[in-house]
Task: inverse folding
């Protein structure tokens, strides 16, 4: 990959051109060489892979029984049904966990089982099974407990449940700790070495879906609206089986049979739009997450499971209120976090940002950590201080495996869990300074200067003449975009401004660009600050994603700007 260091200090990583595969895909599949190169950039290097990627089919879903413990898990559920034993589904308070719980509970209820559930409170109980789970299960006379989106790290709690004759099925997708797999009755987690499953990147709801498929002996295609919602919102790689789930689910979301989802979609103003992963990531997902951040995730769960439009409308109003409250609190904490960074962080010493303050709302720590990691392009760990154990959320950058780093610093932590790019921690207040030193020492060993420069991956450098609505429409075959399958990005040099740029609401900038022969409209969200530079520049280079603007009657080609480099 060719790297160009531009004046803004971002590194443009232009993918190497593969003429051979461009020609082969063009000839055999009848696609443009632009789309062919985009496929190559996503690791697709033969005709069969390209066909499967572009022609996603439900048949590409993997047999759930390839999970080593799936027969055992289904057998335990059938035994509970035959013996008329009560089952508890234990979930998590984010979109992935809520959708997984709703899906599994509904599937079991339809099959005639007696089912209860528990969604832990983010602040009062925290993530995963807790010390009170045995008493809770006994109080509800539960004989089988099934986790969704959690459980892999709960060795102690699961051992205690099983000693008290309560069977436990773990369905999860989190990385196992050094202790390995818990001693549950059955464990369905594609990240375990002995899982037997060839696709390791399922979301929590994806794993729950596989259990539902196996138990019901059905593909459950009609449930893909819910499965895609949790999958996309959890930012798992949208490749392999996740691509099938996301793509098929996005087709079903606009016409979902679920009253709660329909009301949520209608209130968000996207009812009759063509659904994309962006709608889930930035419109639906944050709303569903807001209740678990501000209050209790039960509100969002009840909304998703509601079969009454009137009740769904009441719940959706509460969801909107919590989302607005979340936005206000997040904005305040983000500003306080940036003030701390400006005052206390020396970027020569701190390759990992670790900041802490009293009274930071624990429900928004993950969002704040994510925004700080994006803004400063360093791993960020944001901690809310209190007198006892302090809770923190961590987010990482491309070349720093967060879970492995926390594993190496575990002597400073009371507990932790997560993935390569996102994690949660519990830490004693007086351990924070040593933890900060330890993880930064590790980062100095593992991260280079270039790792800390934000990069832009460019699919192709190309002239404006190569762009038209047909090519851009063809690129829609790469959707849905997300982690592991980014939106195509292109780079064009030596463009000039045509006409006067317009400043729109929310710091949006709209203008026209030309290469002397071809003229196209461009739009930059949050880029109003570039207006004066655009007007005074003799020419500029543009990084952008081309889009078909179909919000009006007449579709038109528009360039959505990622960055501008002035001459």
Result:
């Amino acid at each position: 990959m060719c790297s160009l260091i531009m004046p803004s200090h971002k590194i443009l990583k232009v993918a190497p051109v593969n003429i051979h595969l461009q020609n082969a895909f063009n000839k055999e599949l009848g696609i443009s060489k632009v789309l062919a190169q985009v496929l190559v950039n996503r690791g697709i290097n033969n005709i069969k892979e390209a066909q499967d990627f572009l022609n996603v089919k439900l048949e590409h879903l993997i047999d759930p029984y390839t999970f080593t413990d799936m027969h055992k898990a289904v057998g335990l559920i059938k035994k509970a049904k035959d013996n008329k034993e009560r089952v508890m589904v234990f979930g998590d308070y984010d979109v992935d966990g809520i959708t997984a719980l709703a899906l599994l509970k509904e599937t079991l209820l339809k099959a005639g089982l007696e089912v209860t559930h528990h969604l832990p409170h983010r602040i009062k109980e925290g993530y995963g099974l807790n010390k009170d789970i045995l008493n809770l299960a006994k109080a509800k006379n539960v004989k089988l407990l099934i986790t969704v989106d959690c459980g892999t790290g709960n060795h102690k709690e699961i051992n205690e449940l099983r000693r008290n004759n309560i069977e436990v099925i773990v369905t999860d997708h989190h990385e196992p700790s050094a202790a390995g797999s818990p001693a549950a009755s059955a464990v369905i987690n594609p990240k375990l070495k002995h899982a037997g499953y060839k696709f390791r990147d399922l979301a929590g709801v994806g794993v729950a879906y596989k259990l539902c498929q196996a138990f019901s002996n059905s593909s459950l295609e009609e449930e893909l609206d819910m499965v895609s919602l949790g999958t996309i919102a959890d930012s798992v790689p949208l490749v392999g089986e996740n691509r099938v789930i996301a793509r098929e689910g996005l087709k079903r979301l606009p016409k979902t049979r679920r009253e709660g989802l329909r009301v949520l979609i209608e209130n968000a103003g996207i009812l009759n739009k063509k659904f994309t992963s962006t709608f889930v990531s930035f419109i639906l997902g944050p709303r569903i997450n807001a209740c678990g951040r501000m209050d209790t995730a039960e509100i969002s769960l009840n909304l998703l499971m509601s079969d009454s439009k009137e009740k769904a409308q009441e719940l959706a109003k509460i969801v909107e209120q919590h989302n607005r409250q979340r936005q206000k609190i997040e904005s305040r904490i983000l500003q306080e976090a940036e003030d701390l960074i400006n005052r206390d962080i020396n970027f020569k010493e701190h390759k990992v940002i670790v900041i802490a303050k009293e009274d930071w709302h624990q429900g928004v720590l993950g969002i704040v950590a994510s925004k700080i990691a994006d803004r400063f392009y360093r791993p960020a760990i944001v901690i809310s201080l209190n007198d006892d154990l302090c809770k923190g959320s961590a987010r990482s950058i491309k070349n720093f495996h967060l879970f492995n780093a926390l594993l190496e610093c575990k002597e400073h932590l009371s507990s932790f869990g997560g993935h390569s790019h996102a994690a949660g921690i519990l830490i004693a207040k007086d351990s924070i300074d040593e933890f900060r030193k330890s993880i930064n020492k590790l980062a100095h060993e593992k991260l280079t200067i270039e790792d800390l420069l934000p990069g832009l991956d460019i699919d192709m450098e190309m002239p404006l003449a190569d762009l038209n609505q047909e090519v851009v429409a063809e690129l829609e075959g790469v959707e849905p975009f997300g982690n592991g399958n980014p939106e195509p990005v292109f780079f064009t040099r030596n463009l000039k401004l045509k006409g006067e740029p317009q400043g729109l609401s929310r710091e949006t900038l709209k203008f026209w660009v030309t290469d002397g022969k071809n003229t196209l409209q461009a739009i930059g969200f949050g880029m109003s600050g570039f207006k004066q530079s655009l007007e005074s520049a003799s020419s500029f280079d543009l990084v952008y994603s081309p889009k078909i603007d179909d919000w009006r009657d007449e579709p038109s080609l528009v360039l959505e700007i990622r960055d501008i480099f002035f001459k």
About this structure: The CA atoms of residues 201 and 236 lie 7 Å apart. Confidence is low (pLDDT under 50) at residues 3-9. The chain has 19 helices and 19 strands.
